[in-house]
Amino acid sequence: MGGLTFEQWQLLATQKKVERRAKIPKEWRIPRSLVKKWDEAESVIEFPATSGFFTKRELKITGATASDVVKNVAAGKWSAVEVTRAVCKRAAVAQQLVNCLTEICFEDALIRARELDEHFAAGKPLGPLHGLPISLKDQFNIPGLDTTLGYTSRVPSLPAYPSHLVASLLSSGAIIYAKTNIPTTILSGETSNKIFGTTLHPLNRSWTPGGSSGGESALVAFGGSHLGVGTDIGGSIRHPCLLTGLYGLRPSHGRIPMRGVEATMRGQEAVRSVAGPMCRSAADVRLFMASVLSSKPWIRDTQCLPIPWRIEEEHLPPVLCFGFATCDGDAAPTPPHRRAMDLVRKKLTAAGHVCIDFTPVEMPAARDVIDAFFNADGGAEFRSDLSASNEPFPAWLSSPTKRPALTVSETWEAQAERDRVAEDWLDRWNATEIVSSTGRPMDALISPGFHFPAIRHGCAKASNYAAIGAVLDLSTGVFPVTKVCPERDRVDHRDDDWTPMFDGDGEVMENYGGPEEYKDAPVGLQIMGRRLEEEKVTAMMGLISDVVGVDY
To answer: Which of 197, 246, 381, 446 is deepest in the core (most CB within 10 A)?
Structure first.
């Protein structure tokens, strides 16, 4: 569908929005009596609880965790139909308030839910996810629904077969009811494209919910999904989860099937995209991972490793050693993240665990490596996909597409640098055995996952903290800790006697501004293990959740 005129691609985008709107049942559309009040509201996070639009039963169901849902459905307390109806209704409201959905299939979801209830009545649950509605990022193929990657040139793009992960979820008893918004190219920290528009943060609609899985984070944070599936190649699960107060996991490549998942940078294998959960608890992370791996995805996906969910790897030593990152190699954490790190460190220490400092000096080099790989073709693919519809380039994309493509030799050099960074990181990680007092190296590294607790639209930036996990393919989780408090997160750099600790402190703190701009924004942290340690990292997130809780 190349060579579209300005009017043609705009018409395609308008038609997609009209189709999406038509799939929201009239009874789930926000009444005019509420529209004006909430259209003017900065935060819409309290709409479900205060608007009177939801019943107490619907609020209880949609406010539960994914783990609670499958337990209640399996116990016969909730039916798949009532869970699905409540979730679809809340997702429909989320769409009207924060623009998070791309494709809607509520009717099909309710048909599926009825079938699952009939199956349950005749015997037992279909699988470990029986009756759980799950939302999916745009990239996942579902027959009958478009997969656009944010390009109008891909409308329509109806796949013939589902992504293998979709098939795995369905075989486990899940219900698919919606796909969620992404940025053009799926490589931006801002979720916006010319087809569906910009997704907003439910806590403050002047903020972005992150990218590229920002549609998922906004939906889950609003309560329109118990568990969503995103993808991560440079932080696209972790950043959105951190910005919206969720739990998330970037598994190592090969644990979760990616066959049939659409992506940009096709054939780029130096840094791999992976799929993972975005949810409300560490238990939900485990539920997703264990359920998917119970279907033995390696039988049908050549990229999947034959590693089931290993329960024995969840058994943690009685005393763990946690490293705490003092910086990202360029700059110290901002005040809210410093406070979150201090809070977690104190509580882990009080619980008998060992906490040590670790300076991740490799992070800037990892960031340079990932930038090289993402721009290896000089932006040729992006230019091709955008020119197919003649839609304008996103402002953030203009610079990368002007870089020269790497030569073969330069690509090899970048790959060699990646391996050097990995070896240096591993050697220094192993060297912590000397100071851990546990007789082994540190078990995990805790750090911010991003410099800022919130980002205004149009201000998204990349992060050293996220790059290292992607480049080294580390099992990496994120979890919420607290929220920004202007009284406790005072801005040091405004004091006359403030002295920067690292070269990048001045720039980071200037961009940070002050805590007043981020009042009540979620503050979360990142936890990194070694490669292929998903079970251990998930268990450690659960331990931290139990020991620290969430200071809201």
So the answer is: 246
